[in-house]
Each structure stands twice: as C-alpha cells, then as structure tokens.
Design goal:
Layout lengths: L5 H19 L5 H8 L3 H13 L4 E3 L7 E3 L12 H15 L6 H15 L2 H11 L14 H13 L1 E9 L2 E14 L4 E7 L4 E6 L4 E9 L8 H12 L3 E7 L3 H7 L5 E7 L2 E8 L2 H9 L5 E5 L2 H18 L9
Antiparallel strand pairs: 1-2, 3-4, 3-7, 4-5, 5-6, 8-10, 8-11, 9-10
Length: 330
C-alpha cells in the first residue's frame, strides 16, 4: 500500500474540515467556505465534488440566500452508522442532553444537532417517537421538549431567528429572538438570545417555552456576552430584588463544591480567596447562606449589608445570652 503524499493528506484534511463546516450550519456561501478554508471558490467546488463522490449529498443553490447545504439522503453517509446504530446513538444523545452529568448535556446536544441534520426522514421520525418513551429518575434537569431543544440548537447553528411563546407576568407573549447559545445548568436548559422586541440580551428557560419555531431569516451575529456567565449571573443574582457580593476566605473550588451554581457565582481571587455574587428575596437570607458556608468573609456590596451583619450578630448574641444553662442532674 502506498503512502499518501503531503498534498493528498492536505486535501483529505481540507475535505474533512469542509464536511465539519457543512454540519455546523444550514447554508454556507461559496466565498464563506473559501475564506474559512483559505482556498479559492474553485477549490471549494472541487472539494464539494469529492464529498459527493463519497456519497454525501451536498446541495448547491443560486441567488439570494443560496449556497451549499448538506442534505439528508436515502442512506446514511458512508463510514458513519447503519440504521439501528443511528437510532441507538440518537436516542442515547437525547438522554444525555437531558441528563445531569456536568458538560455531557452540551456535548450531546451539539452531536445530536449534527446527526439530526443528516438523518434520513424515516429515521428522524423513529428517533423522535422513541425519545418520548425515555425517562430518568433521581433529580436531573427539568424536563424539556426534545423537539424544542433540537429546533433551538439548529437555529443557533444556522444563525436564523427563532420565535416562541413565553410567560411574562400573568400573560404569555410571543418573543422574537436571535438565538446564540443553549446553556445547561444543574437543573435547567436556558437559551441566551438577543431579544429583538426589547433590543437587549436575555436568557430564557427552555422548559417554559411553547410553540418553538425557527425562521429562514438569517442574522449577522452581534458581539455576544459569555453565555454561561450571563445565564449564571441572571439565575443566581439578577432575577432577585437584592444582590450582594462577598470576599470569602476559601478557595473558589472549595466554595463551588458547597453552593450550587444556580445559587451563586464564584470567582477566583487567589489561591485561598474568592468573590461570591448571590441574590435573594432578602439581605438576611443572603447573609445566612454565607454564614452557613463556614468560612470567614467580608461584605463588598451593598453598603447597607454591613448594617444587617451587625443587626444579625446582635440578635444571635441576644439569643445565646437568653439561653439558660442546662442543670447538671448528676
């Protein structure tokens, strides 16, 4: 067997990179692919031909909104999976996307979005039907509609607008958004998106969405905040009427192991110091939460929290002083 030359290896790597790009987004223009691959549009056309020769159905459309698209076919692409393997893998990924293993849900959802894009229609229907019969126990995330997750993941990937009905106070309103990232916490799935009606960044709970749909209208990505940080700060702090910051005399890893990510944001400030951002319905509740961690801490914000510390300390001292000693019955 001959050894592949450097040019052949380069071509193979480029074609595999092209396949990965086609799996990431619904439609790419020729110039976009050429820019990503560092080649000419003519080379892109030749590489698309190589993928077609291998059995991958790459569509090419002209005009506004046109470009290259990896479409589903009658058979799975070569060297991937047969029908039964594809169904088993997709259902396993659906379970993983809803599971509680840290990081596994995000990876499972990304892999499922790629697999769903190339599944033949007959298999896609079977996967959706089987997913409805899979459940879990022992906590985990709030249940969400797998179809909604798939629709939102695809909209993030394809950079197209999405819409859904979402509760706001006592009403349920239609929201139009530019979806950017799906974020999994220990309990829920969230969508980071730019709200077109409110002209600002928002995070939405996927389990509260209904009538989820993706449009064909593509958007130009904006400079987005870090998705995980934005969602965590919103869940742990911004949604509450009172927010507080503390300097805790313990390592960030130690404190993160003591308090859920949905209750506080922990930032490293040194090997044995960290900053904790948390919110609650009352400042006293935040103080008690920090006290129960068992570490020395200092109040950074807000100023009135210092006064609440002193008031709480005086109340605890008074309660201790009022306790009568237990008589010795010996």
């Amino acid at each position: 067997m001959g050894v592949a030359s450097g040019d052949e290896r380069g071509t193979t790597e480029r074609v595999l990179t092209l396949l990965g790009l086609l799996q990431q987004r619904q439609v790419w223009t020729g110039p976009e692919l050429a820019d990503r691959l560092g080649v000419t549009p003519r080379t892109v056309r030749r590489d698309v031909g190589r993928l077609r020769a291998l059995g991958y159905r790459v569509r090419a459309t002209q005009g506004a909104g046109g470009g290259y698209q990896l479409g589903p076919g009658q058979d799975l692409p070569p060297l991937l999976l047969d029908d039964e393997e594809a169904i088993a893998a997709a259902v396993s990924l659906l379970v993983g996307a809803g599971g509680g293993v840290a990081g596994a849900g995000d990876a499972a959802l990304r892999a499922l979005a790629k697999l769903d894009q190339v599944l033949p229609t007959r298999l896609r229907h079977r996967v959706r039907a089987l997913s409805g019969s899979v459940e879990s126990f022992g906590g985990g995330r709030a249940p969400v509609d797998p179809e909604a997750l798939m629709t939102l993941a695809g909209a993030c990937r394809d950079e197209v607008e999405a819409g859904f009905a979402y509760p706001s106070g006592s009403e349920v309103r239609r929201r139009r958004v530019e979806p950017y990232r799906l974020v999994a916490s220990d309990r829920r799935w969230y969508l980071l998106a730019y709200d077109l009606d409110r002209d600002d960044w928002r995070s939405f709970r996927v389990d509260r969405m209904t009538e989820v749909s993706a449009r064909t209208w593509r958007f130009r990505p904006r400079a987005a905040p870090d998705a995980a940080t934005f969602v965590q700060e919103g869940v742990a702090s911004r949604v509450y009427p009172h927010q507080a910051r503390f300097l805790v005399h313990a390592s960030a890893d130690t404190v993160r192991a003591q308090i859920p990510g949905s209750a506080a944001v922990v930032r490293r400030r040194g090997s044995q110091l960290c900053e904790v951002l948390s919110g609650a319905g009352s400042l006293d509740f935040v103080l008690v939460r920090m006290l129960l961690l068992g570490h020395d801490f200092e109040v950074l914000d807000p100023p009135e929290l210092g006064r609440r510390c002193r008031a709480l300390a005086e109340r605890l001292l008074a309660a201790g002083a009022a306790t009568s000693p237990v008589p010795d019955e010996s």
